[in-house]
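[Meeting: bench + compute handoff]

Bench side (C.D.) handed over the final construct sequence. Compute side (W.E.) agreed to return the predicted structure before the next meeting so the bench team could plan truncations. Sequence as handed over:
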Amino acid sequence: MARFRECLEGGDAAAGRLIFFEKAEAACLRCHKVKGEGGDVGPDLAGIAAKHDRTYLLKSIVSPNADIAPGFECVMLTLKDGSYVVGVASAEDAQEYTITPLTGGEKTKVKKATVKQRDKVPSPMPEGMGDILGRRELRDVVEYLSTLK
C-alpha cells in the first residue's frame, strides 16, 4: 500500500469514470455495478464512498484479497459426488449456498448436505491492478469512486 499512497488524492473523477467504464485492461464494469450498470461478481459500488474512505478504496483496488466485501467471497465447493462448483458465495442460509458463476450466467443453488468441503479461493480481481493502471489512472479511479456517495 505504501507505494501507492500518492494515489489517495488529486485525481480527475471524469477520467476515472472513463477508466472504470471503458478501459479494457481494467475491465471494472465486467464485475462491478454502478447504479445498476455492470456485472454481479463484485459488489455494486454505488454509495461506496458513503461507507468507506479513500484508503479503503485504494486498498481494495491494489490488494483485492485483503478485505472481501460480505456476500462476494469466492469459493470452491467440493461436492460429495466428486464434482466442483466455483464462484461467488452470494448468499447462504442454513440449508444451501447460492453461487454466482465468475463467468456470468445463472446462479446455482447448492444444498449444504451435498457439500464435502468448502474452500476460499482468491478474488478474480487481479492483484496487480495498481500496476495495470499506473499511478495517474489509479488516482483518477480512486477520485471517481470517492464521488459515489
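W.E. noted at the follow-up: The two ends are 24 Å apart (CA to CA). C.D. will use this when planning the next construct.
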